[in-house]
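Researcher: Please translate sequence to structure tokens.
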Amino acid sequence: MNPEGPRSAAVLPTAGPRAADARASHHDLDRVWSPPEGLYGWLTTTSHTQIGRRFIVTAFIFFLLGGILAALMRLQLSHAESGFLSPDRYNQIFTMHGVTMMFLFAVPIMEGFGIYLIPLMVGTRNLAFPRLNSFGYFTYLIGGILLYAALLLDIGPDAGWFAYLPLAGPEFSPGHRMDFYAEIITFLEISALVGAVEIIVTVFKLRAPGMTLNRMPLFVWALLVTSFMIVFAMPSVEMASAYLILERLAGTHFFDPAAGGDPMLWQHAFWFFGHPEVYIIFIPATGMVASIVVTFSQRQMFGYPAVILALITTGFVGFGLWVHHMFATGLPSLGMSFFAAASMMIAIPSGIQVFCWIATLWTGRPRLRVPLWFVLGFVFLFVMGGLTGVMLGAVPFNLQVHDTYFVVAHFHYVLIGGAVFPLFGGFYYWFPKMTGRMLNERLGLWNFWLMFIGFNVTFFPMHELGFRGMPRRVYTYLESTGWEPLNLLASCGAAVLAVGVLLFVINVLWSRARGQAAGDNPWGADTLEWTTTSPPPNYNFHFQPVVTDRYPGWTRGPDSPVVVGLKDDAHEVLVTTTLDAVPDHRTTFPPHSIWPFLTAVAVAVIFFGLIFTPWAIPAGAVLAMAMLILWFWPKHHVLHRGHEEDAP
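Model: Translation complete:
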């Protein structure tokens, strides 16, 4: 079809870049897709690469803050009857550590990698709904800042990151501490839902021509499954936190048995989100592992369809074992048996993936670089955590170790071993793509071994502490318990782990300024993001690629087909069909805008003002409505100082 035809006409690939439309130029594309400079540009950009980097950096800062809180807890528990922290301060630190790692670090950083990488991997120029993407980041940033402001003001949440009722209710938690928890959880999950919707639409409708579903990179598949899980899981915790804030501020009785409520309602609603949350964190990590394994074995993924089916199966089964956390609550034995079976069955798809990764490495030509070291460490640690998870799936054993440090050990082996180690592998793997420079290999090896040794020295002794009866969520213990030596050992391991993370920060700062230039594809990787420059331009690809196989990074050459006919003076992208990625039509994204930031501020006024006065609802609603009207008011777009902006 003629690219100059109707707006609904499909844009078809040509034989190669030499036949491309001569009007397109890097200069014109960069002028249109680049955000304004300075603070205004930072507040208005809708570039997925810039927003993705912000998610990653912001989430990593929260990871460091959560690690500092963990270090304070380890200092408190290193010795029996320690007075380093008061019980009240310990409760706030304990709660904030969990909230930080689960809500401010784990999910946002995984979505941040998806926001940055998926448009590059599927061969498009931006994420779907780019302004919504900006709004999602600012809700996340504002929520995190306000939560830590509450901690610094000594009004941080103090009933645990799971906020069990009635402990988190108005009777046992007076004041505004748990009000902040309830409002911030609801507010933060807006960001998670926004990211999930954008990823789903981008994957289904903006893939490069020829990238059928069975040609998508496994990382894209992993984020797609994760995004659907977020869409179904997050409303549950949003509903629960909304009930909690109504219980505390409006005097409802959803969880009050004396008035016909039930505190078990909170546990069901929370853990229906909470256990899928573990896989929402873990599944993107498996996508990172698959990318690293394929690249460093220089071999196609063994069992590609089996890995995809395992990802989807994990997503489905992950919703069927939330009662795994509630075996000690007196539920019917027959019902618990089904959830026990699901808790064991979930290990099968994870095992399939592990065997496929091992087979890929075994039959390839592995190169032991730092990203692959982190993957190998992940396999060891995750298998350990998975074995203890199967043990906890057995109801009699679970009842014996429930709420002991055995569960703490299992939880951290699964989440740090199963998510943080692949994440650090992903940092080393994609850092050249994001910055154009390599991280230092020698520092990277020290980083890996210090983290690996420190992690095991920290958390392996906690299994034994659990067997010896040390309960979770205690701020001190008697010397006669005999727990002090293992706690001191765990604290020493935490110090080694912290040094490993510090080495990574030093490596990033040094390499960002003076690291070796990376080139476009330093690893010889197989996916599309490595076929453009490192770092990529604001528009990702000069000509959008056409995909002809599953590993375009290995097969594309200078004469490979590309898409032509897209405007170089507007944010225009190609929309393709869902299954086979056949060109369907062109669409134009709106330019950079300040209104998503202002809308996030207006919504924050509603959520956080409500803690102190009900008048925040009408005031914030009017403000938010005004911002939304300005956001969506029909405008024409003009070039101002070289950048496309809204004009009335």
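Researcher: Any highlights?
Model: The beta strands are 572-576, 583-588, 636-640, 643-647.
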